[in-house]
From TrEMBL:
This is Phosphoserine phosphatase. SUPFAM superfamilies: HAD-like. Pathway: Amino-acid biosynthesis; L-serine biosynthesis; L-serine from 3-phospho-D-glycerate: step 3/3. PANTHER family: PHOSPHOSERINE PHOSPHATASE. It comes from Telluria aromaticivorans. It catalyses: O-phospho-L-serine + H2O = L-serine + phosphate; O-phospho-D-serine + H2O = D-serine + phosphate. Residues 3-40 form the DUF4072 domain. Its EC number is 3.1.3.3.
Length: 282
């Protein structure tokens, strides 16, 4: 196995100290904030010890099979809220209604896997009834930001020939705009119902929940003529686990503990472009 250590704020000395714990045959400096430790004698205990020490030091420790690169994959699929972008859109929409604390509490519980996603989304959307639809544009213009490293990551995966999918339990108002802005290949999300310029408090059609996210990844892979094991899937919440579970590489990005524990690799401190360091062989 190869161990990639990266920490944007971590000094090189900290990375080197963590590398010693791995007992690697070779240690290669990728840049001033990343090391690649090659030919690591891997075990569950080694993984647990190094990941715990790294997390305490503000470093991402990612174990991956030796020799893996972006070229092994054909698709990068991403969650939107708190993954590709820094906000939870529904929480910010609710803020326009003066209901952010109530909605955020439900969102957090759903992302931790404590609530059924579809039921929780219906509850949250119902609280938005009567809000002027212009609030959606305000959220997009004033609050939506791409997560650190997101644009660099997308540029690199496109250059490597991979397709991109944004699949979200959020809303098409935002995924449609991000598709155009970031030149994404595919998007799929929920449709908020609007009548007379106001939100009705309902979603049109079926809700994009964990099962639908997984099916979307499968559909896109099938359309591309690739196996789901040739997909990289990135997410942060419990509703991402099903689609992450079928991927060839699952990436937990600043994720809830339940997601970190089940993902192949976790980026807790690096940006989305940390994926490039993990899959770099240079």
């Amino acid at each position: 196995m190869t161990l990639v250590l990266q920490g944007p704020q971590a000094p090189l000395e900290t990375l080197e100290r963590l590398a010693q714990l791995a007992g690697a045959a070779r240690v290669v400096q990728v840049d001033g904030h990343a090391l690649r430790c090659e030919d690591v004698a891997f075990s569950a205990q080694v993984k647990q010890d190094i990941e715990a020490a790294a997390f305490a030091a503000g470093v991402d420790a990612c174990f991956i099979e030796a020799g893996r690169s972006l070229g092994d994959f054909g698709l990068v699929a991403m969650d939107m809220d708190s993954t590709l972008i820094t906000i939870e859109c529904i929480d910010e929409i609710a803020d326009m209604q003066g209901l952010k604390p109530q909605v955020s509490e439900i969102t957090e519980a759903a992302m931790r896997g404590e609530l059924d996603f579809s039921a929780s989304l219906a509850r949250r959307v119902a609280l938005l009834e009567g809000l002027d639809a212009s609030a959606l544009q305000r959220v997009y213009d004033e609050r939506l930001r791409i997560s650190p490293g997101g644009e660099a990551m997308l540029e690199a995966v496109r250059a490597a020939g991979l397709k991109t999918l944004l699949v979200s339990g959020g809303f098409t108002f935002f995924t449609d705009r991000l598709k155009e802005r970031l030149a994404l290949d595919y998007t799929h999300a929920n449709v908020l119902e609007v009548a007379n310029g106001k939100l009705t408090g309902r979603v049109l059609g079926g809700i994009v929940d964990a099962e639908e996210k997984m099916r979307t990844v499968q559909r896109v892979c099938a359309g591309l003529g690739i196996d789901a094991r040739q997909a990289i899937v990135m997410g942060d919440g419990a509703n991402d686990l099903r689609m992450m579970g079928i991927a060839g590489l699952s990436v937990a990005f600043r994720a809830k503990p339940v997601v970190r524990s089940q993902a192949n690799v976790a980026l807790n401190f690096s940006g989305l472009d940390g994926l490039l360091t993990i899959l770099s062989q240079a």
